[in-house]
Amino acid sequence: MATTKKKTVQDVYQEKTEKLMNGVATWAAFYRSNPQRFVKDYLNINLKLFQKILIYMMMQSTHFLYCASRGSGKSWLTSLYCVVRCILYPGSKICVASYRKEQSLEIVQKIEEDFLKLHGWGSSNLWTEIQYISTSVNKPIVEFKNGSWIKCVVASDSARHNRANIIVIDEYRLVDKNVIDTVLRKFLSAPRQPGYLNKPEYKDMEERNCEIYMSSAWFKEHWAYRKLQSYFVNMLDDSKKYFCVGLPYQLAIKEGLLSREQVQDEMSEEDFDPISWRINFCSP
Fold first, then answer.
1. Closest CA to 25 of 14, 37, 15, 17
2. Structure pTM?
3. What Rg, from alpha-carbon coordinates, does the chain have?
4. Which of 122, 134, 159, 218 fits a 20 to 30 Å CA distance from 19?
5. CA–CA separation, 283 vs 68, rounded Å?
6. What is the pLDDT of residue 280?
7. Residue 266 above 70 pLDDT?
8. Rounded-to-integer distance, Cα 95 and Cα 156, Å
């Protein structure tokens, strides 16, 4: 009769480790495919339907353009995306650029003042992920224990030395297009380097770097509108991972992000400027 080999302590430890890592891989794959569920299950944040759709598309797209009214929570949702991306994809490097550093600083401030404080056990979970956070104007940054980070930079020629896997350009219409093309997009010199790329069978599975543009509406004569048009055309091509969306103020009112009475009062004033209103609160 064959005898069963007695397991050593090392064998038991190895089995437990394999089961744990297989579980981690399964859940990581699930949450990468369903980031809106990760937001609820791990960060304890309840999203509205349109936010669930947008954060899903942000995670699935290599090029994402978000044009929406003021008060619709563009910066808040983008901050949340950065947090989710950094946790689910260890070693992610995200640069948030804007015309002024104080503007891009809002991304880090929302992480510190909202996600790390207002969501109970979800905030506690996020604290366990973060190594260091600074909202100083001189060096705004969030560093994660898994090697990911979020850094804020000024969209100017002086930022040439930065490198990233993902660039987020806040109010991109205010940024010089030449700076975007010759400086910011050049940050994306190398994709994220996860460990599986060291295995021969996975060497051709490199991830794509990502670009995210946010802005309120602007004049059609401006290059920012042509950028939106080009994204729309590429979005219709199934071989590309482009996505663009325009959300007007009516959605913000419907979802309780903007006061209907406040909007009605402002529009009833004699000096109401419809052009300025369309720029700030309507979509293309």
1. 17
2. 0.90
3. 22
4. 122
5. 6
6. 80
7. yes
8. 13
Closest among 127, 122, 164, 121 to 145, alpha carbons compared = 127
Cα 136 from Cα 250, distance rounded (Å): 35
Q: What residue ranges define each of the domains in the chain, with the CATH number in brackets?
A: 49-281 (3.40.50.300)
Average pLDDT over residues 223-245: 95
pLDDT at residue 4 in the model = 63
Give yes or no for a contact between 258 and 71, defined as CB atoms under 8 angstroms apart.
Answer: yes
Tokens of 2: 């064959």
Q: Quick one: 109 exposed, middle or buried, by C-beta within 10 A (0-12, 13-18, 19+)?
A: middle
For residue 2, is pLDDT > 60?
A: no
Which strands, in side-by-side order, build the sheet including 130-134? 130-134, 141-144, 149-154, 93-98, 166-169, 210-215, 63-68, 242-247
Q: Write out pLDDT tens, residues 196-209.
A: 888 888 888 888 99
Residue 173's φ and ψ, nearest 5 degrees, are -65, -25
